[in-house]
């Protein structure tokens, strides 16, 4: 569904010396420098996959998404999405993809969302019956009915975001590019958006490429993680492989008398329990010791939080870059 080979994007940025004299000199002789935003990415995504496309701020994530959607032309390399070159912006390509950015909107501010839905039907030349069926499905899944006919400017951020998703999916795209889709939303609406995206993927087989700094988004929606930094791909694998490579072990959570755990280096977990992360090989001996001291304790073994693992991953890829 998505194929990128040696994908590269370089921006030419103007430079000038400070002050009035520097400004005058820049008029006569403009000086520029090249900034490499994406530096030779190879990426293949199969139909129906859900991937988390992650990296620190400035890593090149949004630039890559814009090249994959045709908003930017690559400086070099190639990419194909749904069988098309994105930069050609062919009508069949535009019908096959959508890009939802958490801080951008396409809804008409002073009109109800259905007016945008009607406009999109005309823009994509959608069959009226199929379009109406899709609208009904989206209204149900996203729970839009209570506020659907109110002007967009009167809606809350969460209500607007759900309408944005509906407008973006009316043409039933095969590839969903989601850039921070839950940014600024409250916890309940975030859960609604995540549940909807997963249901849409499973029902319609749409490919999902997600960028987000919210690890709850990543945990709920991504089966595969791709990490880039300064435009270079640093990791590509499953969440399990991510834990194996960058995790520090397994986390043991205990509910019970903390005094009985003295000397075992457990720390409060913030919710009345106790926690400690140990290497995988040390899990069973530690469990035996905990249950010997607290036979009735409630004990859980889990992977460390994804946020912790990714923080470690980002740190290691920056070290790799510095060493290189």
What does this structure look like?
The chain has 324 residues and is α/β, with parallel strands linked by helices. 38% of the residues lie in helices and 27% in strands. The protein is built from 11 helices and 13 strands. The chain has helices at 19-28, 61-68, 91-96, 113-123, 128-141, 157-169, 187-204, 215-221, 239-246, 283-293, 306-323, and strands at 2-15, 31-45, 50-54, 76-81, 97-101, 175-179, 207-211, 224-229, 232-238, 250-255, 267-268, 274-278, 298-302. The strands form 3 sheets. It has a 6-stranded mixed β-sheet, with helices on both faces. A 4-stranded antiparallel β-sheet has the order 11-12-10-13, with helices on one face. The chain has a 3-stranded antiparallel β-sheet with strand order 2-1-4. Strand 8 and strand 9 (232-238) form a beta hairpin. Helix 9 crosses helix 11. The chain is globular, with a radius of gyration of 24 Å. It starts with a strand and ends with a helix. The mean pLDDT is 87.
Major sheet strand order: 5-6-7-3-8-9
Overall form: globular
Summarize the main sheet: 6 strands, mixed
Mean pLDDT: 87
Distance between the termini: 32 Å
The Cα radius of gyration reads: 24 Å
Structural class: alpha/beta
- Kindly state the percentage of residues in helix: 25-40%
Q: β content, as a range?
A: 25-35%
Note the run of SSEs as H and E. EHEEHEHEHHHEHEHEEHEEEHEH
Low-confidence stretches: none
- What's the count of strands? 13
Individual helix count: 11
């Amino acid at each position: 569904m998505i194929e990128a080979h040696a994908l590269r994007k370089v921006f030419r940025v103007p430079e000038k010396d400070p002050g009035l004299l520097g400004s005058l000199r820049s008029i006569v002789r403009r000086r520029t420098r090249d900034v490499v935003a994406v530096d030779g990415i190879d990426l293949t995504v199969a139909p129906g996959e859900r991937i988390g496309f992650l990296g620190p701020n400035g890593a090149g994530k949004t630039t890559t998404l814009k090249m994959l959607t045709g908003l930017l032309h690559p400086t070099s390399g190639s990419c194909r999405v749904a069988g098309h070159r994105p930069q050609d912006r062919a009508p069949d390509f535009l019908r096959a993809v959508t890009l939802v950015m958490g801080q951008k909107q396409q809804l008409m501010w002073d009109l109800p969302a259905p007016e945008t839905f009607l406009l999109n039907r005309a823009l994509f030349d959608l069959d009226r019956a199929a379009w109406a069926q899709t609208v009904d499905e989206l209204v149900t899944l996203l729970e839009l009915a209570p506020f659907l006919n109110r002007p967009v400017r009167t809606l809350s951020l969460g209500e607007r975001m759900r309408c944005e998703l509906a407008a973006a999916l009316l043409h039933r795209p095969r590839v969903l590019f989601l850039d921070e889709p839950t940014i600024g939303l409250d916890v309940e609406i975030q859960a609604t958006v995540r549940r909807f995206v997963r249901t849409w993927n499973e029902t319609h087989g749409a490919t999902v490429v997600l960028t987000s700094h919210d690890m709850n988004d990543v945990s709920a929606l991504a089966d595969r993680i791709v990490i880039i930094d300064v435009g270079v791909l640093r990791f590509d694998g499953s969440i399990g492989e991510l834990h194996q490579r960058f995790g520090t072990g397994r986390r043991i959570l205990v509910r019970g008398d903390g005094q009985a755990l003295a000397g075992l280096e457990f720390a409060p977990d913030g919710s009345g329990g106790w926690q400690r992360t140990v290497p995988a090989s040390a899990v069973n001996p530690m469990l035996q010791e905990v249950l010997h001291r607290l036979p009735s304790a409630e004990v859980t073994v889990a992977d460390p939080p994804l946020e912790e693992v990714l923080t470690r991953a980002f740190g290691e890829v920056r070290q790799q870059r510095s060493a290189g």
